[in-house]
Write a structure and sequence with these properties.
It comes from Vibrio aerogenes CECT 7868. Belongs to the CvfB family. Pfam families: S1_2 (PF13509), WHD_CvfB (PF17783). It contains 3 helices and 18 strands. With about 280 residues, it is mainly beta. The strands form 4 sheets. A 5-stranded antiparallel beta sheet has the order 3-2-1-4-5, with no helix packed on it. A 5-stranded antiparallel beta sheet has the order 8-7-6-9-10, with no helix packed on it. α1 (about 210-225) packs across α3 (about 250-265). The longest helix is centred in the C-terminal third of the chain and has 18 residues, at about 210-225. The protein is elongated.
């Protein structure tokens, strides 16, 4: 099945000086211009190409892969504005992506870098972008469990922290108290489900919650201590940035974890770091 706005595998049917023709099934033949042919084509063998409609509304193929395909989000730069809407660079040289005025949550201006969702407009069949995400999210009930690992896409700032897209399907809220490290709109990170509230809204965290979080970090600390000959120059006096650069966790969580390891007799805490006890080495 041909998927417009996505990468397809199409077999080679003909080779010419100006390009290669590919079998696009019900769409007929589509030409891949010679400048995009990166390797010698083989008759009948498939090639990976991205399919889109050009400015003349004709099917076109390229080996370029856009920042985001249909059904995906991506950061894109606004390169122009006209009476139809804003145009963004989505990584396809032959054609910029249109964001109609009706799909803009606030007017856009040239030079802006924004998060865009790419979809196919049912009425026109055109591939377009939108900055209005609500109609594409929370369409199915959230069935996540506490501490479930998920993919997060930082979508926007809020007065409480950051709004994130969870697994490409739901809105999630990352509160400022759960933020550590550098976050920005468009960044993709791993996260965990903190809770699903009674109103159905989802709270997320960048690290596991409660005991499960500490257990996982304990294993990481012990593993690294064994790899570093039993000593790490990190302790409760280390900066949050130093701790995050090594363990991707907050200073508070790190302090609680080494406290637990100390009580269990796994480590000793020194002025300049932590040391693995002799029976754990």
């Amino acid at each position: 099945m041909i998927r417009i706005g996505q990468v397809n595998q199409l077999p080679v049917t003909k080779e010419t000086d100006f390009g290669v023709f590919l079998d696009a099934e019900d769409y007929g033949s589509v030409m891949l211009p010679a400048k995009f042919v990166n390797q010698p084509p083989v008759m009948g063998e498939p090639m990976d190409v991205f399919l889109f409609f050009d400015s003349d509304n004709q099917l076109a193929a390229t080996t370029e892969v856009p920042v985001a395909q249909v059904g995906e989000w991506g950061m894109m730069k606004v390169v122009g504005i006209n009476k139809t809407g804003a145009f963004v660079d989505w990584g396809i040289r032959e054609k910029d992506l249109l964001i109609p005025f009706s799909e803009q949550r606030g007017r856009l201006s040239a030079g802006q870098s924004i998060l865009v969702y790419v979809y196919t407009d049912k009425a026109s069949g055109r591939i377009v972008g939108t900055t209005k995400f609500n109609k594409w999210l929370d369409k199915t009930p959230a069935t996540y469990t506490r501490n479930q690992k998920v993919d997060l896409l930082i979508a926007e700032r809020s007065q409480f922290g950051f709004k994130a897209i969870v697994n490409g399907e739901h809105w999630g809220m990352l509160f400022q108290s759960d933020v550590f490290g550098r976050l920005f709109v468009g960044k993709r990170v791993k996260g965990y489900i903190k809770q699903i509230r009674e109103d159905g809204k989802i709270d997320v965290s960048l690290q596991k919650i409660g005991v499960a979080k500490l257990d996982e970090l304990s294993e990481k600390i012990l593993d690294l201590l064994r790899k570093k000959d039993g000593f790490l120059p990190l302790c409760d006096k280390s900066s949050p940035e130093e701790i995050f650069s090594v363990f991707r966790t907050s200073k508070g969580t790190f302090k609680k974890t080494i406290g637990q390891l100390y009580k269990k007799g796994y480590i000793t805490i020194e002025s300049g770091g932590i040391r693995l006890t002799s029976d754990q080495a």
